[in-house]
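quick one if you have a minute, typing this from the bus. below you get a single protein, a line of residues and a line of whole numbers that encode the local backbone shape. could you go over both lines and see whether the tokens make sense for that sequence. anything you notice is useful, everything is just below.
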Amino acid sequence: MIAKLRAALFLILFYSATVFMIFMAFPLLLGKQSAMWRQANRWARLHSFLARYIIGIRSEWHGILPTEKLAKDAVYLIVAKHESMFETLELVRFLGHPAIILKRELVDLPLFGRLLQAHGAIPVDRTGSAVALRRMLRAAGDAQKQGRSLLLFPEGTRVAHGEMPPLRSGFFGLYKMLKLPVIPIALDSGLLWKTGLNKKSGIVHFQVGEVIPAGLPRKEAEARVHKAINQLNDPFEKEQNS
């Protein structure tokens, strides 16, 4: 019961603050894009603060942190497991200002979608048309020219902890066209952070894998990414990395 009350308080505070921060962000549309990056980072830090001190959830990173791995002049395709909303904002907090590749429905939202566009989010059209793919690749290329790494959830959607679906074809399309090395990130947020009030205290683990070089054949690239992002879902892999 106490856990649900804490989760309810978190949701009230976080979404109230989110509405305020959205309206505070609109004047930033008139300035440089970096101002929007800083606002997004403030939002992510607020989310982390409330999650930690109200619900009791915090992050623990293993392996070389992305901020250490991401050299000033290096750009990567960062791929991560997706089990909850929690890691969406934690990754923004730790990675700085990656260009996030996400479903078009979010970019089409009123108000919030406009801010996502200003931040540089890259929408994915699930119709899979050639025109939509070219548009996505063009936007990804523009982000790459800005020196921004790209963040992708290659399984395409949020999944429950323990599920390991195959990667969507869009991953290899980006990997092949952009010729970027890949940083895979595994996580286990789904054990603690569930929908609604079903949240409990504890540690969300993030496992940063070895860099996967660009230019690998499709089967090898997909196999290596799939294995790396599921290290904390596969009991054998989790034991090996504990």
Remarks:
- The chain is about 50% helix and 15% strand.
- The chain has a mean pLDDT of 88.
- The two ends are 32 Å apart (CA to CA).
